[in-house]
Amino acid sequence: MMNRRCGVVCVGSLNIDLLCYLGGQFPSPGETVHGLRFSTCLGGKGGNQAVMAARLGAPTAMVGRVGNDLYGNTIREAFEGNGVDTRYLLKTADGIATGTAHILVNGEGQNMIIVIAGANGQLTPADVQAAEDVIAQAAVLMVQMEIPTETSFEALRLAKAHDVFSILNPAPAPDGRLSQEFLAFASLVCPNETELAILTQLPVGTIPEVQAAAHRLREMGAASVLVTLGAQGALLMTAENAAQGGQLIPSKRVERVVDTSGAGDCYIGSLAAFLSRGAPLNEAATKAGEMASLSVCKAGTQTSYPFAKDLPAHLQLPQIA
Fold it and tell me: CA of 51: how far to CAs of 41, 48, 122, 189, in Å?
């Protein structure tokens, strides 16, 4: 059972990640290249974010769907091993498999990802409504766009109805524009620069362009915007600082990037965990950036996420009073 107003709920996707590591660049269309190694690990944006929040020590519950198959059982067991509440982790009917993500990682640590939704596409607004009690008890709700849009919308609606801080990670960014109502239901919209460009149809090649696009996203309905910028850090834009172009939050320098897969999810899950213990938004974003910097130093998605016991004191969550 989650402690009221100190826990995190994630409504989102769960996948098995199939990773292929290359020594050089990505192949061109029609080209066959040799890879260095292959591995499988747990993934899905929702699953990644939930595991990261739980590893930091935040009471965390997952609302999602998996297939009635080996991959689904593996995900459930792993969640329970990480301390994630799986009461609302549902199984689909036979014939609809657990979601998968097929990830290519080049020699520079950059990635290309193909996601097959599978059971994630079966998560419905009714499934979210059935989890209303745990959402109402949470301090922070996380949602993404790897599940049906109407399901993410219902999660945000319930969070707002219960005065729960909500984070919308619009990934992958939808082809069509999100409605003003959808964006307005979220307490914070957190895209990366690519997703910001898709949502606003504006260039994001420079910091001034990112600032302009963040302004546009607020005009489209977002109350607050936190844009992750990789090695450049993040841009936080709220009602209080929008007139000044927002606040740039630098990232910690990384000497050698091994794998960026899942770094954005590490960021979101960490952000939610720090916010759930009352950290101010800019402080939570700074610490989340440091967590993401740690994750890119190791291979894989969830396999690269640190545990609280291995972190320095300033990245530990405050104890619950």
Answer: 13, 5, 21, 20
| 3-state percent helix, strand, coil for the chain, nearest multiple of 5 | 40, 20, 40
Catalytic residue annotation? 265
Q: Tens digit of pLDDT for each residue in 237-293?
A: 999 999 999 999 998 888 788 877 788 999 999 999 999 999 999 999 999 999 988
Q: Is 205 helix (H, G, I), strand (E, B) or coil?
A: coil
Model confidence pLDDT, tens digit, residues 149-173: 999 999 999 999 999 999 999 998 9
Task: Find all residues with CB under 8 Å of 59, minimum gap 6, and list them.
Answer: 2, 3, 6, 7, 8, 85
**pLDDT (tens digit, 9 = 90+) per residue, 22-47?**
999 999 999 999 999 998 889 899 99
pTM of the model: 0.90
Q: CA torsion, points 72, 142, 271, 78, in degrees to nearest 10? A: -10
Which residue blocks in the chain are alpha helix, DSSP H?
45-55, 70-81, 125-130, 132-137, 149-161, 180-185, 193-200, 207-219, 263-276, 281-295
Give the distance from CA 169 to its chain's centroid.
6
Rg (CA), the chain: 18
Nearest to 293 by CA among 109, 170, 169: 109
d(CA 196, CA 189): 10
Q: What are phi and psi of 289, to 5 degrees?
A: -65, -35
- Do residues 203 and 244 touch, judged by C-beta distance below 8 A? no
